[in-house]
Design goal:
CATH superfamily: Response regulator
Radius of gyration: 15 Å
Distance between the termini: 19 Å
CATH topology: Rossmann fold
Number of helices: 4
Structural class: alpha/beta
Shape: globular
CATH architecture: 3-Layer(aba) Sandwich
Number of strands: 4
Oligomer: single chain
Order of helices and strands: EHEHEHEH
């Protein structure tokens, strides 16, 4: 019996933090069931170093990740689920994604940890909070899928 993994795409504005972390976590937590992708409406230059650092703490290597554009995936991948992780992406993403089943578009608003000011430890804590929030949301979402 052949089992096909389902594609899920995580979208945010720059694809430098939240959607990248979600991609890494989903592939780590459910890589046997899903192929996670991520993209941005307006991709940045590089994945934020603090995102890479806090994911490394969780045993997930994102050092080779690069920001990607939503245009890289439109019409090219059979996406079964789309999850936006910031309000700008939710507002800017195409209302209709070719082939996306109705009801499989989700929004998980997460604060941008890069907007936190303070010491390096305070900033890292904000990135860890987003990582841990994403891990919890992904875990709960996977449970609803059975």
């Amino acid at each position: 019996m052949s089992v096909h993994k389902r594609h899920v795409i995580f979208l945010c504005n720059g694809n430098t933090i939240r959607s990248q972390m979600a991609e890494g976590l989903m592939n780590h937590m459910a890589g046997d069931r899903f192929t996670a992708l991520s993209a941005g409406v307006d991709p940045g230059e590089r994945v934020h170093p603090m995102a890479i650092a806090v994911m490394e703490e969780a045993g997930i290597d994102m050092s080779g990740h690069k920001p990607k554009s939503i245009k890289d995936y439109l019409g090219k991948e059979a996406i079964l689920h789309m999850i936006t992780v910031c309000d700008k992406a939710q507002q800017s993403c195409p209302r209709i994604w070719p082939g996306l089943p109705e009801g499989n578009r989700h929004h998980w608003m997460l604060d941008n940890p890069a907007s936190v000011e303070g010491s390096e430890e305070e900033r890292l804590a904000a990135f860890r909070k987003v990582r841990d929030d994403l891990r919890e949301r992904i875990s709960r979402w996977l449970e609803t899928l059975g």
